[in-house]
Amino acid sequence: MHSAPVEAPGCLELDRQRHRRPEGRDRYTISEVAAYAGLSAHTLRWYERIGLMPHVDRSHTGQRRYTDRDLDWLDLVGRLRLTGMPVADMVRYAELVRQGEHTFADRERLLSEHRENVRRRIAELRSTLEVLDYKIDIYSGAGRRSPEGF
């Protein structure tokens, strides 16, 4: 039985629209999944080894066969990577998902803590963007006045 952890099906619909799924009818090869997810086959195999990508089904010849559920999971992992979540936390989250519903509180705690980190980073980036906008405004008007400083 396939046991890829997946949460909130449909929450990544925008990603699905941006990245068309391969025509594998729920049985994708590692190269199709690598192209879809923007990862190398080596990275996908590493995800399996570290427990981030749970058991992937195999064909009768031993080739990996990924499912839509696996692609859903990789969509979530990709989002978590974009937020800067450490791999260890992603692996911990995957372990909690595999353990079942009794881990909902632990999952919520892990994601809530990470959300706060993301919010802090967003605030820092907004502040930095304001500085960049200010400097760009100075330089775009440099022909009319001489900028001082850096």
How does this model look, in words?
By secondary structure, the chain is mainly alpha-helical. The mean pLDDT is 86. Helix 5 packs antiparallel against helix 6. Helices cover 59% and strands 0% of the residues. The chain is flat. The longest helix has 37 residues, at 104-140.
Helix content: 55-70%
In DSSP terms (H or I, runs of 4 or more residues), the helix count works out at 6
Structural category: mainly alpha
How would you describe the shape? flat
What's the average pLDDT? 86
Kindly provide the radius of gyration, computed on alpha-carbon positions and rounded to a whole number of angstroms: 21 Å
Tally of strands: 0
Low-confidence stretches: none
Strand content: under 5%
- Give the end-to-end Cα distance, rounded to a whole number of Å: 61 Å
Helices and strands, in order, run as HHHHHH
Quick one: biggest sheet?
A: none
